[in-house]
Amino acid sequence: MSTEACCTCAALLSTIPPTYDEKTEKPAQYERRLECCGRAICSRCMSDNPRFATYCPFCQVSITPSPLPQGLRDPPAYSPPPSPRPRHATLARVDTHERPPPYEEHQPVQPPSEKNTNEPAPDVLHFVDPDNDTVTNLSLRYGVPANALRKTNNIFADHLLHGRRTVLIPGEYYKGGVSLSPRPVEGEEEEARKVKLRKWMVACKVAE
């Protein structure tokens, strides 16, 4: 019993009957032996895909004339890539004019320009309006990712924003430097001082 299999469906050729003609009830199509690579395609695959009757899916060649318009060609047949060459053999073939220029000594080193140093902008203090401000709203107004706002202010849930009087807008994303919230009566510096004092009292567990 032959153990040869179809190259497309991997079924044994001995287990696949030929295709019969409906009128004469005689075998009309057996498996096809590919001339290019010696593989075989069963009659069932050619019945499901008539292209296999004239085309090799492995070598990508056809035994019929190409239907492409004039000026176009069939894609090239597949060929395995060449074996990689050793690195020293490749370097030996490099011409002299392709090699990098020799190192020149005593070249003055230009110090980096002060204008090119991108100093991060300072964080901006925003005074929270519990009725209108949300994490999504502040993200859109300042152009800052919502995750960056949560991380900078240690906000683990968006509803915790309403319990804050102020939040910091990270200067890494917001370069405007100006707060878009109404200023408090006592000024931003006084409010910032109270925020720092409140954090210190919480950290040290001081009531007054």
Structure description:
This is Thiamine biosynthetic bifunctional enzyme. It is a single chain. The protein has helices at residues 43-48, 87-92, 135-142, 146-153, 188-204; strands at residues 19-20, 27-29, 32-33, 40-41, 55-56, 61-62, 124-127, 166-169. With 208 residues, the chain is an alpha+beta fold. Among the domains are: 13-62, no CATH class; 124-204, Roll (Membrane-bound Lytic Murein Transglycosylase D, Chain A), CATH 3.10.350. The termini are far apart. The relative contact order is 0.08. The mean pLDDT is 77.
Give a concise summary:
With 208 residues, the protein is an alpha+beta fold. The chain has helices at residues 43-48, 87-92, 135-142, 146-153, 188-204, and strands at residues 19-20, 27-29, 32-33, 40-41, 55-56, 61-62, 124-127, 166-169. Among the domains are: 13-62, no CATH class; 124-204, Roll (Membrane-bound Lytic Murein Transglycosylase D, Chain A).
